[in-house]
Amino acid sequence: MVVRYMERSTVRRLQDDTVADAGIPEAGGSVRAAAGLGSTHERCPAGMSRVASFPPIAGRHPRILILGSMPGIRSLELAQYYAHERNAFWPIMGALYGADPAIPYAERVKILMASGVAVWDVLAHCRRRGSLDTSIDLATAKPNNLHVFLKNRRSIRHVFFNGAKAADLYRRLVLPSVQTAAPYLSYERLPSTSPALAAMGLAEKLRRWSVIRNEHRPELRSIAG
Predict the structure, then answer these.
(1) By three-state DSSP, how is residue 187 classified?
(2) In the chain, what are the domain boundaries?
(3) Quick one: fold of 24-213?
(4) Where are the alpha helices (H) located in 21-133, listed in sequence order?
(5) What digits encode the pLDDT tens for the residues 207-217?
(6) Which of 126, 130, 164, 181 is 20 to 30 Å from the Cα of 71, by its Cα?
């Protein structure tokens, strides 16, 4: 049973030009491509920067997809997902899959791909001040081509959101194009691994994130609450 988090009547249809083609690599593509070496971080007026996300990390038959909102400044500088040293993502992936932050990044990517874990961001590009999700200019936010990505990877059955902003952006910008093509998907919002969520420690974040190891459960919670 798939738990819906929006009524169909409330979903607004998006115009075709709101979905950006992010250049999705073929399944099983190179680790170099998955590292996002083509990302951009350009200065814009009024203290805003135009930022662009990386290609996804995805093997041939991923089972789950973890979605963030947009890479932070440190990630853009290093062309690596979740590169900030205080971000809990890689410590959690280390505890769950062995992709420990002490391991070279390319090896961590390989471990996730071999474990059936795909990683991407909801947005292809946007304007933003700094790294905080709250600073994203929604008027400039363009989503990645997730409906094509998911259509081509039907092995994915569960989508997990890294924080509330990723879930909200997906609901606003992606769900209308995905719900018909992939009605079997279930969703769950997890606490952000960002150091900005300082009120929740690593132990509690790990406990909450451990649910991704149970991706074969028949039901997952809605991300509405």
Answers:
(1) strand
(2) 24-213
(3) Uracil-DNA Glycosylase, subunit E (3.40.470)
(4) 31-34, 73-78, 89-97, 105-114
(5) 999 999 986 44
(6) 181
